[in-house]
Amino acid sequence: MLILTRDVKPGRPATRDSGGQVLTPARIGCTIPEVFEDVGSGEPIWFDDGEIGGVIQKVESSHVRIRITHARAGGARLRADKGINLPDSDLQLAALTPQDREDLSFVAQHADVVEMSFANTARDVEMLQQDLAKRGSRLPAVVLKIETRRGFENLPDMLLTAMRAPCCGVMIARGDLAVECGFERLAEVQEEILWICEAAHVPVIWATQVLETLAKEGMPSRAEITDAAMGHRAECVMLNKGPHVLSAVRVLDDILRRMQTHQTKKRAMLRELRLAHRSAELIEANRE
Fold this sequence. Notes:
This protein has 288 residues and is of the alpha/beta class. It contains ten helices and 13 strands. It has helices spanning 98-110, 122-133, 149-153, 155-162, 174-181, 186-199, 212-217, 222-230, 245-259, 274-287, and strands spanning 2-5, 15-16, 22-24, 26-29, 44-47, 52-59, 63-70, 84-85, 113-116, 141-146, 168-173, 204-207, 236-237. Strand 2 (15-16) and strand 3 form a beta hairpin.
C-alpha cells in the first residue's frame, strides 16, 4: 500500500513491526494536487516512467490510497522528482501553469523553440500561441511533446492548429507515451506519429532513452543500437545526459550517417492510419 498526499512534505517509507508486518504504509506527496479531483477508484497509476505501477483503491479528501501491483523483483526505489502517469483518468489540468506564463516573457524574447509538455488538445496549442503573440511579434517555433494517450489521439487536430504558425514540430516523448499507451503499443504509436507528421511536412524529434546505456555506462546494448538507427526517420534525435555522452554522440552520428544510404523517410508500404480518419472528420467539419 502507498499513500499519495496533497502536500509536498518529504516522503517516508513504511513502518513495520518486528515480524515485518506493515504498521503504516509508505507516504509520498504530489506537487499537482489538482489531479485528486479527477481520479477514481480502480484506475491505474504509474510512477517513474512505468518502473512502479499500481491501482487506486480509495480517493479521500487529503490523500489517495494506492495498491502497488507492479515493481521489479525484490522491490524498486522511488526517488525524488519522478513523474506520475494516470493514463485512464480524465485529467482537467490547465495546459499552461502560472509559472509557464511568467517564463514565456523571457522565452518569447530569447528562445528559438518552445517545447510544450503534455500537449493534449488543439485548445492547449491555441493558448500557447495566444500567450506568445501577446509578448511581441517574434514567435518562436512550437514543438508539441506527445506523451499522453489524449495527445496522440488529438494529434491531427493539434497539428492543424500548430501549422497556422510559420514553424512547428513534434517530439515523440516515448517515456511517458509508453506508460500512457502501453509498452506493447509504443512501436505502433510512434510509427503513426512519424507517418502523419511526414504527410504534414512537420519535423519530428525522436526522444527518450536513445543510447541511454551507452551515455550512462559506456557500453550500448544491441537493442538500443537498433533503436537509434530507427531514429533516422525523424529529423532530430535527442540524447540524455551521462558521463559518456560524447561517446554516445559519436556513435549516434556514425549510425545515422550509415543509415542515410539505406533508408529515407519515404516507405514503400503505408497501411491505413486510424489517425487519418480523425483528420478527415476535422476537414469535413470545417467544410460544414
